[in-house]
Amino acid sequence: RNTADRSRRRWGSGAASHATGAPPSRDPSKEVPIIDIDRSLDDLEIVIMAPPVAVRPRSGRSSRTPARGDRRRRRRRRFGRASRPALSASSFACVLLALAVASSAESIDAGAGAGPESDVDRAGKGGGDDDGRRRMAEGGTTGSVRNERPVRNRIAPTLLKVFDDRETNAPLDVRNHALYDELKNATFLSSSAGESQFASSESPFRQGGKTSSFKKSLHLDKVELSSFGESLVLSWRGPVRDDDVIALYCPAEESNPRTFRDAATVAQVKATAAAERYRSRHHPYLDRPPAGSALSRGLEGEESNNAWRIPSFPAVREENCEFRLLERITFPKEKGASSPGSSSTSAATFFSVSARTDPPLSLALARRKPTGVHLALTGTPSEMSVQFATGDSGVPVVRYGLSADAEKDGLPDKVEGASATYGASDMCGSPANSADPGHFSSPGMLHDVVLTDLTEDRDYSYQAGIASGQGTVWGEVSKFRSPVSAGSSVPFSILAYGDQGVPFDDRGGNGAELTSMMIRHELDNAPASKDGEADRVRGVHHLGGLSYARGASHVWDEWTGIIEPFASRVPLTIAIGNAEYDHTEGGHDGKDPSGVTTPGGFNPEWGNFGDDSGGECGVPPAKRFVMPSSNDSNGIFWYSYELGMVHFVVVSSEHDLGAGSPQRKFLENDLQATNRTVTPWLIVELHRPLYNSQALWEDNAVGIGMRYEIEDLLRDARVDLVLAAHYRGYHRTCDGLYRSECGEGGPMHITSGTAGVALTAEPTYAQIWTERVIDEWGYGRATFYNSSAMRWQFVAAEEGGTMKDAVWVVRER
C-alpha cells in the first residue's frame, strides 16, 4: 500500500476512498496481518506496520479502540487508548527476528508470531478455538500442509462423566481413554480358564505368591428408572482395590465383556464421586440428595468412599443395564509361575467378573418415553413442529389444545408424524462410524410431528408420545405460544448464542447448564416483566457449535436433554458449525446430508476447515432437527423464515458462499425477495463471524474470505444485524460496518459463542470497529419493539442474568 493510503486509514481495510464512488479493491489476503507462506517479503511489511496488539481486559469492560465520536477523530487515533499495554520493544524485536529466521527457512506458518502469544504457545495451554487455528507440528509446518490440522487438545466426556483420579477436576476424554483400550485387548477369565476359581464372588487368587479369599458385591439404590436423567447411586462392599474396574453393560445380558458402555477404575470412580459432591455443595441449584437424608449423610460421611452417585443416568436405548466389578488379577514375575492357559514366565494381567448388580437396572419404561423434545417453526404461521426421540419404534403422536381450555376439555386434537434414525455406517468417517465403546451408540427413533390449524398468538398445551401395540406412552405436558404471522407489529424477543456443548466438555465446567438454566428463568419471568409482551421470547437461536459430540454420539442425547426444558417451550432454530459438519472424507459416497459430493466438503485455500465433526459430517443434526423450508433452502444448512416484523436468514459458514454456488444463489434470491414493508428487520445468522478482533489469525482470515464473498451483498440488501458464534466470547462491532469502516451502511456484527464451551480469552488486536468484548458465559437478547427500534443486550449466565451490554439499533424506514 502506498504511504498516503496508510496514513489515511488503519490497516485491515485495504480499500480506496468511498467518496470516489469507485468500488475498492478486495484482496482478502491483504486485509489482516497474517504472515503467510505465499506472501512476498514486501507483504511482510504489513505486519510490521500494523498497530500494536492490545491485551483485552478480563473484567468484561469495553475493549473498543477509540472513544465514541466522529469518524474523522477516530481515524486519527491510530493506536487506540494510550493506557493499553502494547508490545514491548524487546517483544517487537523478537517478532522481527522471527520473521527473518522464518523467511530464510521458507517455512512461515500462518499467524505465528503475529501477536503477543503465538499459536504454538497457546497450543500448550489448550486455549483458543479448536477450529480457530492450525497447530504447528513438532519441527514446524510448511506450505505443503497448509490445510492439514492435527488433533486438538479437546475432550468429550464419557457416558457417565468419569473424572481422572490423577488430575483435579478433569473429566476423562471418551475418545482417548486408556482403560478402554486396555479392556478391549484384555484377557477375561472364562470357564475354560478357571472361571470357578477366579471369577466367583468368593474367589481365591494368586497375587504376589499369596492366596486370599474375600466376598465382593455391587448394589444400586433403584431397580428401575421411569425416565432418563434420574439420579442413581451405586455402592460396593468388600476389599475392592483402586485398580479394579467398574463397567456398565447394556443390555444386562451382554456376553462379550469388551462390549461395555463405560468403564472406570475404582480410583476414577472415587474421583468422580468426589467431584459430584463438590459440585453439589458449590452449586445448590443443581440436583443433589435432600439435606439430612440417609443418602446425603452417606455420601458426605465415611460411606462416600464406597458409593458413586450418578446425578443423571444417560439415555441408553436398551431394556436394561447392569454394572459389573471387574477384578484385576496380576500374576507376578516368578520363576516357574504361570498364569492359567499360559506357559509364559512374564507378568500377566487378567480381568474377572467378581460382582454384578442383581437384579439388573430396568430401563423398559424410560426407553419408551419421549426425550429431547424440542419445537421448530415450519414457515407457516398456523403450524408448529414437535420433534423428539424414543428407544422404541412406533407411531409418533402429539395431542394438543388451547391452554385456556385444557383443564375443561383436555387436549382434544391429535396428529401423527414421521420417524427416522441413523447408524454408524451413515457417518462420513471415524471416529463417528466406529462401534468401539465411546463412539457410536444408537440414537433410537427420531420423530417429527407437525401441529396444524393453530390460532395465531395463542397459548397451547401439548403432549408427545409413542403409540404401539402395548398402548401409548406419553411424555410430559408442556406449553408454547403459537407464532405470529409475517407483518404483525406485535413486539417480541429472541435469544441467541452459540458454542454450548455439554458440561465438562473441553474442561469448560458447567457453563452449558448455567446458560440453559438462565434461559428457563427468562421464559418463566419475561411476560411479567415491565416491558410485558416485548420481552416475550418467541424463539431461541443456536448459532452453531451445538453438542460438540464429534463422534461420541451419546453426547447428542445429553445435549438435547440439556436444552429440552426451554426448547420444548419456544421454537429452536440452529445454524451449522464446524463441530457439526466439517469433514475430510465420505462426501463422495453420498453420505454428506447437505448434498456436497466432494470427499471433504468445502475447503477453500484461505480456510482452516478440517475434520472438526469427528466424521459426523452433519448427519446427527440433520436427522434430529427439521428447520423451516423455503425456495432453494437446504434442510438445516441454509433456510429462511419470517416471524412478525423480522425476516431471518440462516446460512452455513461451512459451505461455499462464492458466486455461482447453490448457497449463494439461495442467499441472493432470498435477500432480493424480502419485502421490507412487511418485515422491516432483516437478520442474517451463521456460525463463523465476518468480523472479530480476537487475535486468532486463521479464523480472522476465514472471516475476511467470507467478507470478500458476501459483504457487498449484505450491505446492498441493507441487512440490519449479523449474528455469529465460533469465537468463545462475546464481541460487538459498531453499527453500519462495511469494509472495516463504521457508519458505511452495513450491518452490526455480533459474536456470541458464550453458551458453555470453555472461553477463548485471547487478546484483541487494535482496530476501529470493536465496541464491546466480554469473556463470560451467557447469551444475547434481541427485542424488536417496532419497525424502527430494536434493542440488543448481552446477559451473563454466571451472574444471575446480569445485563453486561446493551445497544439500541434504530433505523429510519
Question: Can you walk me through this structure?
Answer:
With about 800 residues, this protein is of the alpha+beta class. Helix content is about 20%, strand content about 25%. The protein is built from 16 helices and 36 strands. The strands form nine sheets. The protein has a seven-stranded mixed sheet with strand order 24-25-26-27-31-28-33, with helices on one face. Strands 2, 7, 8, 10, 11 and 12 form a six-stranded mixed sheet that branches. Strands 23-22-21-34-35-36 form a six-stranded mixed sheet, covered by helices on one side. The protein starts with a helix and ends with a strand.
Helical content (DSSP H or I, runs of 4+):
10-25%
Strand count: 36
Main pleated sheet: 7 strands, mixed
Strand content: 15-25%
Describe the structure using short key phrases.
6-stranded mixed beta sheet; 19% helix; alpha+beta; 813 residues; 36 strands; 24% strand; globular; 7-stranded mixed beta sheet; 16 helices
Summarize the model shown.
This protein has 813 residues and is of the alpha+beta class. The protein contains 16 helices and 36 strands.
Describe the secondary-structure layout:
Blueprint: H1 3-8, H2 41-49, E1 53-54, H3 71-76, H4 89-105, H5 119-125, H6 178-184, E2 187-188, H7 195-198, E3 205-207, E4 210-212, E5 217-220, E6 232-237, E7 245-249, E8 262-265, H8 266-282, H9 294-300, E9 307-310, E10 320-331, E11 348-356, E12 361-362, E13 371-376, E14 384-390, E15 395-402, H10 403-409, E16 413-416, E17 418-420, E18 445-451, E19 459-468, E20 471-481, E21 492-497, H11 511-525, E22 537-542, H12 554-567, E23 572-574, H13 578-581, H14 619-624, E24 639-643, E25 646-650, H15 662-673, E26 681-685, H16 697-716, E27 721-724, E28 730-733, E29 736-738, E30 741-746, E31 748-752, E32 764-765, E33 770-774, E34 778-784, E35 789-796, E36 802-810
Helix pairs in contact: 11-12
